[in-house]
Amino acid sequence: MKKQSIFLILILLALFLNGCKYDFILPVETPPVDNGGQPISFATQIVPIFTEKCNSCHNSQAPMLTANVAYAQVVPAYVSTATPSGSKLYVNSASGSHYAKVSATQAALILQWITEGAKNN
Ligand code: HEC
């Protein structure tokens, strides 16, 4: 009987300690961009994302996101280099609140390009 109650106390203690386990909730982060130390290129890395995800609408719907007019139509109207993650272009691409959602990697590229000054390179 005594042995049993010690055993019971041990089990209850184990359950109790287990119940105190704390799960850390980490914020969702965009994956780091490894571009070999080079700046992100608007023409070769950003425009192709528009072509893939946005052109079904934005080759006739303003802003035009096609290669030859994209830069003039999106910068500075929809890009803020002061608050890159608040840029309409980024929000519309990455949040899923607009019609198309880009991948996490593509979102990270767009954000990095804006952070680097949103150059027409
Ligand atoms: C299904 C069609 C469709 C797709 C796909 C689409 N858009 Fe749009 N987009 C629209 C329409 C319609 C508008 C104008 C009305 C509005 O803002 O919803 C618009 C407006 C915008 C604007 C201007 C918003 C403003 O406040 O004036 C931006 C920037 C934009 N889209 C970016 C994108 C990007 C980036 C993608 C691809 C990741 C994309 N859109 C994909 C239909 C689309």
Number of strands: 0
Identify the overall geometry. Answer: elongated
Radius of gyration: 24 Å
Tell me the number of helical segments per DSSP (H or I, 4 or more residues long): 6
Q: What distance lies between the first and last C-alpha atoms, to the nearest angstrom? A: 80 Å
Q: Unreliable runs, pLDDT <50, ≥5 residues? A: none
Q: Say which molecules are bound, naming each kind only once.
A: heme C
Largest sheet: none
Sheet-strand content, in percent, reads under 5%
Give average pLDDT, whole number. 85
Specify the structural class. mainly alpha
| SSE pattern | HHHHHH
Helix content: 40-55%
Description:
The protein has a domain at 42-115. It is built from six helices and no strands. The model has no long low-confidence stretch (mean pLDDT 85). 48% of the residues lie in helices and 0% in strands. The structure holds heme C (HEC). Heme C binds next to helix 3 and helix 5.
